[in-house]
Backbone:
């Protein structure tokens, strides 16, 4: 157990500045002591904003610094494996931004190294949208309030608070790092986030069959254009390990689309999560869908930084999100790309 925890930041993007740094700084016995960003100038700007002592010009010096015992990674996915491995190999606890990494193989390597690093905490930033509902949905399902699960339907047209783009195709939109196959890897829109949520409720998928399309296949990139290889529209069906089926529809190019929502159909009832207004509804054989209140003791909230520090101090285990879960959603996400390209069903590991 460590008392004073000193954290170095690698990659101070929007989430890191908005959540991670200020939330770490609110915790007793925790100090953010260093930062390394894409340029020394941008790193200095972050240091000035948050009163951080050290600014590093490169991340190698930061992870080797004996003054820190933990690292927070806020870079794009293509760097996550390299940085996680460097942090663990230098004896640092590590929390990395989601998505876990850029490929299933890299995710497995990260998990293997974390298991070979006893005493070091490794955590991924969780998908946040359903935290308020997850535990209560699990209770309803586990206690058979809606019977046996038949199917789960997830329909996301990116009307959620994490919207990147939504509605009809925007052929004049600017190129974003999430459109870059090298930087983003096998990740597709918010697919990993929602599959992570689905696993919290009903467990992992058994197989994947998908069809995908890139409707807006080029975007303005500075004074030029770049071609896009990552889908902006995807449909996925398959079986869950619990025996039910699932259907995920995700798109950033559907205009006048139905409201973003999750439907969980059981033999005796139905749950519907409104993913725009974030309200949970329940119905059964006798009643139509009605809003249900989530008891306070079943509600969770954003506490990723607190959980990371508590785990380092030996007070709790990582639940949001362990590397094992990240490996599962990276396998799923990559399988959807392979299935769409091959036109075949992909079986997942058990």
Residues:
């Amino acid at each position: 157990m460590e008392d004073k925890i000193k954290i170095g930041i690698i990659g101070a993007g929007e989430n890191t500045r908005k959540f991670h740094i200020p939330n770490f700084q609110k915790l007793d016995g925790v100090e953010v002591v260093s930062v390394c960003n894409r340029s020394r100038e941008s790193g200095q700007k972050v240091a000035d904003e948050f009163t951080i002592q050290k600014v590093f010009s490169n991340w190698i010096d930061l992870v080797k610094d004996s003054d820190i015992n933990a690292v927070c990674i806020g870079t794009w996915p293509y760097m996550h494996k390299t940085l996680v491995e460097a942090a663990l190999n230098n004896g640092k606890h590590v929390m990395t931004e989601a998505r876990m990494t850029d490929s299933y193989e890299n995710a497995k390597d990260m998990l293997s190294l974390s298991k070979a690093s006893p005493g070091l905490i490794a955590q991924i930033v969780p998908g946040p949208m359903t935290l308020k509902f997850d535990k209560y949905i699990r209770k309803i399902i586990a206690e058979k309030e809606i019977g046996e699960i038949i199917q789960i339907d997830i329909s996301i047209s990116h009307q959620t608070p994490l919207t990147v783009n939504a509605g009809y195709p925007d052929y004049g939109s600017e190129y974003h790092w999430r459109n870059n196959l090298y930087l983003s890897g096998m990740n597709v829109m918010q697919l990993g986030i929602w599959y992570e949520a689905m696993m919290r409720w009903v467990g992992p998928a058994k197989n994947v069959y998908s069809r995908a399309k890139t409707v807006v296949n080029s975007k303005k990139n500075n004074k030029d254009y770049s071609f896009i290889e990552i889908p902006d529209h995807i449909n996925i069906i398959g079986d869950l390990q619990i025996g039910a089926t699932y259907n995920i529809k995700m798109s950033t190019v559907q205009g006048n689309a139905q409201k973003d929502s999750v439907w969980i159909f059981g033999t005796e009832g139905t749950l519907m999560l409104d993913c725009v207004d974030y309200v949970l509804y329940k119905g059964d054989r006798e009643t139509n869908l009605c809003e249900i209140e989530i008891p306070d003791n079943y509600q969770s909230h954003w506490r990723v930084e607190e959980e990371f520090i508590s785990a380092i101090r030996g007070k709790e285990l990582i639940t949001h999100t362990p590397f094992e879960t990240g490996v599962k959603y990276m396998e799923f996400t990559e399988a959807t790309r392979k299935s769409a390209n091959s036109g075949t069903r992909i079986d997942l590991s058990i």
